[in-house]
Specification:
Pfam family, one: DUF3422
Number of domains: 2
Strand content: 15-25%
Helix content: 55-70%
Low-confidence stretches: 41-50
Transmembrane segments: 340-361, 373-392
Protein name: Membrane-anchored protein
Keywords: Membrane, Transmembrane, Transmembrane helix
Shape: rod-shaped
Structural class: alpha+beta
Mean pLDDT: 83
Radius of gyration: 46 Å
């Protein structure tokens, strides 16, 4: 594993060369690609019959880049036509199904002339951004327009950069273009989501208003509608999270590479980095704002669901409290009825026992035995008291048993 970490430090070597030369760099995104970090360099390779200093293939997390340096015999007065097609680059990377993300052509020329504008005009440039880079060691120029072969053209006038510094400077320039293009892959997603986000906002407002006015009988339907909106927002977030995250990461790399150029202003021209920032940052901010809106909508819908569920729960608890209160009232009534029944039971049992005693006494009279009437009078309170005491003891035993 330590070897892997150390290899990562050397995974992006710069090509070393001196001008005049034309550097062609493309970024390809295969339909199916398992990202890896590695570099394959081929020195002295020949593609489409041209003589090259080197070709380099790099495998990134989600795309492949190919850099081809063609040495020129003399500095051209016009832009040299490329002999490489997209198919040639796809063949080099062994990815015939790969989609072209960006293509950058960098013409490395000699010392910048005192008047740069006429030279840039001959090379086919329009409104051009120019910067002195590397503390005055070179001048970088581009109009950032797409040309017939789908490439963005850049001229690098080399003042006194050696082969190593020139290679690193060229790498910074084409990496700005590559990561700028990769970052902008999130912009179509942001534009696609813009009308959907407006619809989601309107639905959220409508559902929030319904949450305030919906009766209890409509709560299930309202909960279903809010859940459906939440599912749509979460699905859109899941579909675009990686893309918008990559946009932010690539934009940070673009900023780093521009800072590494150590630009200085050239009189009469807009700076290279300023041109990129003013046309690139709004798109990045659009993607970031879309990601934030999705996150806020997701949170808002979940909060609305929580509010509705809380409202339903409170109403259920209120209904439960009413049922418990009704049950308590019924229990109290049953207890009162039970106590009344117990009173009647004492009277009934006592009456039954006294009736039995009366029958016994009368039977004894017929048998010739004389029984005083006082016995019957005394037995009445005794029997009633005994029955009442017995019933109370039974009820106490049942209560204690619970």
């Amino acid at each position: 594993m330590a070897n892997d970490f150390n290899a990562e430090l050397h995974a992006r070597p710069s090509i070393k060369f001196l001008g005049p030369a034309i550097v062609e760099h493309v970024a390809l995104m295969p339909a199916k690609f398992v990202g890896q970090h590695s570099t394959q360099a081929v020195v002295g390779a020949s593609v489409a019959g041209d003589r090259h200093v080197s070709s380099q293939i790099e495998y990134h997390t989600e795309f492949i880049t190919i850099t081809v340096v063609t040495q020129l015999d003399t500095q051209p007065a016009e832009w040299p036509e490329s002999q490489l097609s997209v198919a040639d680059f796809q063949k080099l990377a062994a990815t015939p199904d790969a989609e072209l993300i960006c293509r950058t052509s960098i013409l490395v020329a000699g010392t910048a002339p005192r008047e740069i504008a006429p030279v840039l005009s001959k090379l086919g440039f329009g409104d051009t951004a120019v910067s002195s880079v590397g503390q005055g060691s070179a001048h970088v120029c581009s109009d950032f327009r797409l040309h017939g072969d789908g490439s963005t053209r850049v001229v690098l006038f080399n003042q006194d950069l050696n082969a190593s510094r020139l290679g690193r400077m060229v790498r910074r320039i084409y990496e700005i273009e590559t990561y700028r293009a990769m970052a902008l892959l999130g912009l179509p997603e942001a534009r696609r989501l813009a009308p959907l986000l407006g619809d989601y906002d309107a639905k959220l407002v409508e559902l929030s208003n319904r949450n305030l006015a919906t009766p209890r009988s409509e709560h299930k339907r309202l909960l279903d509608d809010i859940t459906a909106l939440s599912a749509e927002v979460i699905s859109a977030t899941a579909e675009t999270r990686n893309r918008f995250g990559a946009t932010a990461a690539y934009a940070a790399i673009v900023d780093e590479r521009i800072a590494e150029l150590r630009e200085e202003r050239v009189e009469g021209f807009q700076r290279f980095g300023v041109f990129v920032d003013r046309r690139f940052k709004p798109a990045v901010r659009t993607c970031a704002a879309t990601a934030v809106r999705l996150d806020q909508l997701s949170r808002a819908t979940m909060h609305l669901i929580d509010l509705l569920q809380t409202r339903i729960q409170v109403e259920i608890e209120y209904q439960n409290s009413l049922q418990i209160k009704a049950m308590a009232e019924r229990t109290a009534t049953q207890i009162r009825i039970q106590r009344a029944v117990e009173g009647f039971s004492i009277i009934a049992i006592s009456y039954y026992l006294l009736s039995l005693m009366k029958v016994v006494i009368e039977s004894m009279k017929y048998a010739g035995y004389s029984v005083s009437p006082l016995v019957m009078l005394i037995s009445i309170p005794v029997v009633v008291g005994a029955v009442a005491l017995t019933i109370l003891r039974v009820r106490h035993a049942l209560t204690s048993g619970k």
